[in-house]
């Protein structure tokens, strides 16, 4: 898939990549995402494994272990760069909100 298709990450994508700043297998990722969002975002296995497959194909994550029961993944440099770009994009959105709604001139 072309890089342009991942310019803006969905919320599940963002949290999966954020989780994979440390090596994890699928169930750990689901638990970590749920914990990071205080239970607000619960990934189903279909969503998770579809995204892991896509990310692995695009070299955003790397499979580093497979014991037959569990596959362990980690973020690649490309994945970290994508995560960092998304962080900056989200930060800009928040700055625009603050500027427009919280700091608006009277």
Oligomer state of the chains in this structure: single chain
Mean pLDDT: 92
CATH C-level class is Mainly Alpha
Number of domains: 1
Put simply, the count of helices is 4
Uncertain segments:
none
Q: What structural class should be given to the helix and strand makeup?
A: alpha+beta
CATH topology: Arc Repressor Mutant, subunit A
Helix content: 55-70%
CATH architectural grouping: Orthogonal Bundle
The tally of strands reads 3
* Distance, first to last CA: 47 Å
Largest sheet: 3 strands, antiparallel
What is the CATH H-level superfamily? Answer: Winged helix-like DNA-binding domain superfamily/Winged helix DNA-binding domain
The arrangement of helices and strands along the chain is HEHHEEH
Strand content: 5-15%
Which SSEs are present, and which pair or pack?
Layout: H1 11-19, E1 24-25, H2 26-36, H3 45-57, E2 61-66, E3 71-75, H4 77-102
Antiparallel strand pairs: 1-3, 2-3
Helix pairs in contact: 1-2
Keywords:
106 residues, alpha+beta, Arc Repressor Mutant, subunit A, three-stranded antiparallel beta sheet, 3 strands
Q: Can you give a write-up of this model?
A:
This protein is of the alpha+beta class and 106 residues long. The chain contains four helices and three strands. It has helices at 11-19, 26-36, 45-57, 77-102, and strands at residues 24-25, 61-66, 71-75. Strands 1-3-2 form a three-stranded antiparallel beta sheet. A hairpin with a 4-residue loop joins strand 2 (61-66) and strand 3 (71-75).
């Amino acid at each position: 898939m072309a890089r342009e298709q991942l310019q803006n990450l969905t919320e599940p994508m963002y949290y999966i990549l954020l989780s994979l700043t440390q090596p994890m297998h699928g169930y750990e990722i689901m638990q970590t995402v749920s914990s990071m969002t205080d239970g607000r975002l619960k990934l189903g296995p279909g969503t998770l494994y579809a995204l892991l497959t896509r990310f692995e194909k695009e070299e955003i994550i790397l499979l580093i272990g497979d014991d037959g029961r569990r596959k362990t993944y980690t973020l690649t440099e490309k994945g970290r760069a994508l995560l960092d770009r998304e962080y900056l994009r989200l930060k800009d959105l928040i700055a625009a909100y603050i500027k427009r709604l919280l700091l608006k001139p009277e």
